[in-house]
Each structure stands twice: as C-alpha cells, then as structure tokens.
TrEMBL record:
Any one GO CC term of the record: mitochondrial inner membrane
PANTHER family per UniProt: NADH DEHYDROGENASE [UBIQUINONE] 1 BETA SUBCOMPLEX SUBUNIT 9, NADH-UBIQUINONE OXIDOREDUCTASE B22 SUBUNIT
Positions in coiled-coil regions: none
Record function comment: Accessory subunit of the mitochondrial membrane respiratory chain NADH dehydrogenase (Complex I), that is believed to be not involved in catalysis. Complex I functions in the transfer of electrons from NADH to the respiratory chain. The immediate electron acceptor for the enzyme is believed to be ubiquinone.
Keywords: Acetylation, Electron transport, Membrane, Mitochondrion, Mitochondrion inner membrane, Phosphoprotein, Respiratory chain, Transport, Ubiquinone
Membrane association type: Peripheral membrane protein
Family statement: Belongs to the complex I LYR family.
Compartments reported by the entry: Mitochondrion inner membrane
Organism of this sequence: Papilio xuthus
Electron transport in keyword set: yes
Domain Complex 1 LYR protein: start-end pairs: 13-70
Name of protein: NADH dehydrogenase [ubiquinone] 1 beta subcomplex subunit 9
InterPro entries assigned: Complex1_LYR_dom, Complex1_LYR_NDUFB9_LYRM3, NDUFB9
Length: 144
C-alpha cells in the first residue's frame, strides 16, 4: 500500500466517495427515516452492481454516469452539518488572540499565578529569540 500515491484516488475510492455523496443527497430529500433507508437500499443495489463489475472500462463509465446523475439530481438546499463549512455554526466560536491576556487586570491575573508566571517567562524567551534572529527593534518604531 505504501507505493500508491496519496494524491490520486483509486477506482474503489471514487466509487466510495460517489456512494457517500449520493447518500448525503438522499438525506437532503427524505426527512422520514424509513423512506430514506428504502432509497438508500435501492442506491446500494446500484453500487453493488458497479463493485461486482470486472471490466475496468465499464466501471469507469458507470462511475461517470453516476457522477452525472448525482449532479442532475442534486438537492437545491443540501443539508449541512452545523459546524462544517457552509453550516450555520461554522467558525462561530472565535478563539481570542494571546495578546488579549496582556490587558487583564492584575486582580484577574492573581487568580492564575502559575500560568501567568510561566507566560511571562515564555514571553521573555520569545523576545530573546526574536532579538537573536532579527536584532533589536528600532526605538522610533515602538509607538502604537
């Protein structure tokens, strides 16, 4: 398996990807679970025919027809997972940058003394590493 390039999908990977996308498309159309499962079983029957085919050219043609059919039957408003790209909660939680902690009040910092002691030590190490690599900053450029 290690001699297969990672960037080129195999025929089986293409079939599996098409199958998964087809099932997700069916989920968008059918909100009743039993109706969806019935359609999924019918879909699986079609894909089993593709997997059982021995001729590679016929398989490639069947996958191409499946891609076209999926494109033509796409749901106009497909379901998306909430935290996936395109979902309603995608990137909703914003992680604040580290410099925000510099503006904490001393009483707030006093609640976490070990953390802020280690943080100040790491800030000094980072500044020393920066000055070693790029030199000291020009005093004229210290304004905000």
């Amino acid at each position: 398996m290690s001699n297969i390039p990672l960037g080129i999908p195999t025929q089986v990977q293409k079939i599996c990807s098409l199958y998964k996308r087809t099932l997700r498309n069916l989920e968008s159309f059918y909100d009743r679970r039993h109706v969806y499962r019935y359609q999924a079983v019918l879909c699986r029957e079609k894909f089993d025919k593709i997997l059982n085919e021995k001729d590679a050219r016929k398989v490639a043609e069947m996958v191409k027809q499946g891609e076209e059919e999926l494109f033509l039957t796409q749901h106009p408003i497909p379901k998306k997972f909430a935290k996936s790209p395109g979902g309603v909660a995608y990137e909703r939680v914003v992680t604040p940058p580290d410099w925000v902690l510099d503006y904490w009040h001393p009483l707030e910092k006093a609640q976490y003394p070990e953390y802020f002691k280690k943080r100040e030590q790491r800030k000094k190490e980072f500044i020393a590493m920066w000055e070693k690599e790029y030199g000291k900053p020009d005093p004229k450029d210290t304004h905000h």
